[in-house]
């Protein structure tokens, strides 16, 4: 199209019954450029993310073909949703806003701008929980059973480097590295592995027996002596890894010590006892459990949150293994599976099994309001499913 002249602009204003006196003197005429395709993607960023990009950091979109894409910064994960706009959005390079137009002499001037692209929607980002369930699942395909394991030599399972995990897990690098620590993964020959639970218990047993025979305080276990004494039984890096998993490392007078973590060790021993029984008489379990933990440690049921559940309705009361990490990651599926296990839950019982679903600043109470309905049972508030469980 030919460029508009001043006379044409004035005629158009007159037809539109617009008084030129009320307008800024500059008229911007827009025309579509030759390349004005719709191949533009708009992404709405919060100021923090924008600053990161401007500082030269990169944002990554992660997800396999069957997953909903997420966008990750160095340390946060965002859900991506397309938001449609009712108005077409036009991209005009060098476009000036009214504030930027300096009112020149009264003779009106015309500026011609080309539209480089347009869009009817944009991507909206919403901070979300990193999707980390898959991390454990991948590493559990092939847990490490120790250097003597034949299985490791013949295994056909994939092994994963940090790079692999960054490509497969929908979470930011920091969230992934933190989670690897949480699940006590360790790097063996460059690959991330989880130690097989029985192998972990074997290693832990070596350590606790040594502590016992040397009469060390549980709060001050020397790394060097452990490696010296146990190095002939198991690889030194495995001994150190089990100390890192079940102890807190500190340095005193230039020497490395570990304070053994009572709650974590008691919890592991309970898992070992419970994983071989469908249900366990509660009082018998408590007795055996206390006898099985290292001397000087005290077992308490609250150490088992998210690992085991007490059934108070059975006579006698029983306890059974129910691990939060085995439950679905999706909110609705998680609740379905919990209500399938038990029809009515108290808030105290269900909290450890839904705590990890809470988004930023969200409470367990808010989750329960959304996915469950409450009622009173013998004076106690209980929650059951909002929908029939098949």
Q: What does this entry look like structurally?
A:
The chain is α+β, with helices and mostly antiparallel strands. It has 4 domains: 6-127, no CATH class; 132-149 and 158-194; 197-260, Orthogonal Bundle (Arc Repressor Mutant, subunit A); 327-389, Arc Repressor Mutant, subunit A. It contains 14 helices and 17 strands. The protein has helices spanning 6-15, 47-54, 133-140, 150-154, 162-168, 173-182, 197-214, 223-230, 236-246, 262-274, 282-292, 331-341, 347-354, 364-371, and strands at 27-32, 60-62, 70-72, 77-91, 110-115, 117-127, 185-188, 191-194, 221-222, 247-252, 255-260, 280-281, 308-311, 318-321, 345-346, 372-377, 380-385. The strands form 6 sheets. The chain has a 4-stranded antiparallel sheet, with helices on one face. It has a 3-stranded antiparallel sheet with strand order 9-11-10. A hairpin with a 2-residue loop joins strand 16 (372-377) and strand 17. Helix 8 (223-230) packs across helix 9. The longest helix is centred in the middle third of the chain and has 18 residues, at 197-214. The protein is elongated. The chain starts with 5 loop residues before the first helix and ends in a 5-residue tail after the last strand. The model has no long low-confidence stretch (mean pLDDT 89). Belongs to the DCC1 family. Pfam families: Dcc1 (PF09724). Keywords: DNA replication. It comes from Erythrocercus mccallii. This is Sister chromatid cohesion protein DCC1.
